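Ex. 9. Protein: G5 domain-containing protein.
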Amino acid sequence: MRTILKWVFSVLNFFKSRIFAVGLLAALLSMTVYATSATINTVYIHDDKQDQTILVHTAEDDINQILVNQGITTKPVDMIEFKGFKDNVAEVYIKRAFPVSITADGRTKAVSMVNGTVRDAMKLAGVEMNNEDIINIPLSTFVKEGDKVVINRVKYRNTEVEEDIPFERVEKRTPLLRPGRSEILQSGRNGKLVKTYSERTIDGVVEESTLIAENITVRPVTQVALVGAKVPVSDLNFGYSIVNNAPTKYKKVIKGARATAYSAGNGAYGASGNDLFYGHVAVNPNVIPYNSKLYITSADGSFVYGYAIASDTGVALMKGIIDVDLYYESYRESQLNGVKNVNVYVLE
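Predicted structure tokens for G5 domain-containing protein:
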């Protein structure tokens, strides 16, 4: 019994010794190191804003908190790739967003991109384009920092341009005025021409214009001036020989005939059915049959109507008040003629 008690006391003394204390401390330290090493995480941070990878040893397992602890700030538009820890090791990739500008319709929009194409940037900016529009960077090109995308709008339109058509000037020689004198018989007036162009515009500026149609909306009016000259009124020519202001051959002549004048406008025709223009005259068909060929002139040759055809008649002619009525293509000329004494040669 005494032996057992002695052994117990020797064991108690051992636990009170330094050796036991040191051994216990070492055991506790070993347990602490093991527990600590089991909870330390190794994180590799790849920031495309930095030239080197950041190595972090931390007990933190929240990646956002890890970045905050390292003083690394990000924006909502930045991309953070983190797939979690594996054996207490993780890699983080930070892709920084960069600005890309889109200019169209006179406005510039800036969008933040991490990656993607020009088409993606336009979609993000809410900008569309059609097949005719021009873009400085192809849609399929991947954007990079500093890219400035410019879209030029191409449109087609038709425009009308009104132009003046200058009127022509014609001089008409006449024996109704003394040589050297002139008078405007018909005032000239410009016409109007509408030209239609097909235009190609880029951002509202005409780059190409093609004439596709012309339309005369107002026709010009020719200015006609009477100019005094020693010429016959009629343009007809029957080929007779005229000597001393009279034909050398004729059937009969009515000397000192009373001649007046008239006009009837375009498209008029006489009692004979002939169209009326310079060189057609009205007669009494009982005296001078219709379609007779005539030569009419004053006795002194100061006025020459010239060759004519008997094509019309009238009341004053049938009553013998006048002998011949000379046709003019304008009312003003008939006024200038007045009443004249002429010789009427009946040629055939």
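Check your answer against this statement. Residues 138 and 185 are 69 Å apart (CA to CA).
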